Amino acid sequence: MPAAGKVAVIGLDSATPQYMFDRFAEDMPVFTALRRKSLWGPMRSIDPPITMPAWSCMMSGRSPGELGVYGFRDRGAYDYGPLKFATSHSIQAPRIWDEMTAAGRSSVVLGVPGTYPPAPIRGAMVSCFLAPSTQSRYTSPPGLADELEKLTGGYALDVEDFRSTDLERVSQRVFDMSEQRFEVARHLATTQEWDFLSFVDMGPDRLHHGFWKYCDPDHPRHEPGNAYAGLFRDYYRALDRHLGRFLESLPENTTVLVVSDHGAQPMVGGLFVNEWLRKEGYLVLTEEPAGPTPVAQAAVDWKRTTAWAEGGYYGRIFLNVEGREPQGTIPAAEYESTRDLIASALEALPDDQGQPMGTRALRPGELYGEVNGIAPDLLVYVGNLRWRALATLGMGKGLYTTENDTGPDHANHGDTGIFALSAPGITPGRADGLSLYDVAPTLRELLGLAPQGSRGSLLG
């Protein structure tokens, strides 16, 4: 198959197959029509299915282990301090736009997570929601920021405080941000020179986290008849209209890929992982927290502590190893047996009703062929990601809660996103077994870039 002249990637963070392919298919005539002429299907995300690093894995073909990035925050050293936020500097592997720049070809990159601070590329880059504000240097070239401010009257990096009880504000901001993101994408697509264009709308993710229990009758905390019951349908209809206008702005025969980095699912509740470690005797404090306290600020007795955790969509267990951590307690010879004990106990832990929880405790060396940076000793999918891993101490709620420790939240990530590729000469139809790692080699073939790695393109 010949390389396409132009390739546009439309990223919808957290867009899920059950909504895009099924429940709202009739409400999304543009996307459904695009899908009929596409190679499409559910797409398995990475482990862990987290926005950062998923988009960088997608655009490089590398695993989190190869990148050395395992989430929004990672250990910077073998110490007991707080985790460090990942930035674009954390991604050392070239992504598609870097390969295009090296080949002397132009790209437009808009809002793709993992691009702050923005890198100088041949073309234009508007960095992601991790930029602290639009007062920071969030575009390359820098002057592009003034152009966006004039176009939008105030460029939105993200929905501020999207985990909030101010539902009216959050819902309006999600709708506004998606409309603006597609407007900016149309502007850049028609004013910039490019062979490759990639942008990401964070709207679906923010909507899912803020409103899943209101919109999904199967959510365990659903409130029948609530004022936001139709919000998902309204949003996906609006998203489809934005998609239609954007597609109309593209040159004829542009290859189009619509993709998400992961899916979403109802959040059943949260497990206080550090409180569980305390209960099991693995984590020891010298004094009780006076209130909600991050583990990095707690009075931990490191000389008597075996393990501690950091939380989020998945849990990260770190072992306190002799010769590795400053006050390590686990002899190196007992590392594997200790890790196995903790993993087995977590996987056997029942839920708050005494029923099997389905937790998975994963070892980096088994997930990745290469492990760089400082990976967690265990990656823990509590309830197979239907429960959030909560690291906060001193909440006074036992081991289980129905809430999040960082604000209202009703959804957790799922391991399956979406994929729909419409390209000249492609054979349309549903494809099973799609992987996020298929994207980069396929883009390279479409763009005429040199293959990398052993994984082949979906184009055969």
TrEMBL record:
Kindly list the GO molecular function terms attached to this UniProt entry: hydrolase activity
Against SUPFAM superfamilies, the record matches this protein to: Alkaline phosphatase-like (SSF53649)
InterPro entries (alphabetical) = Alkaline_phosphatase_core_sf, Phosphodiest/P_Trfase
Pfam families recorded for this chain? Phosphodiest (PF01663)
What is the recorded name of this protein? Answer: MmcK
Q: Which gene encodes it?
A: mmcK
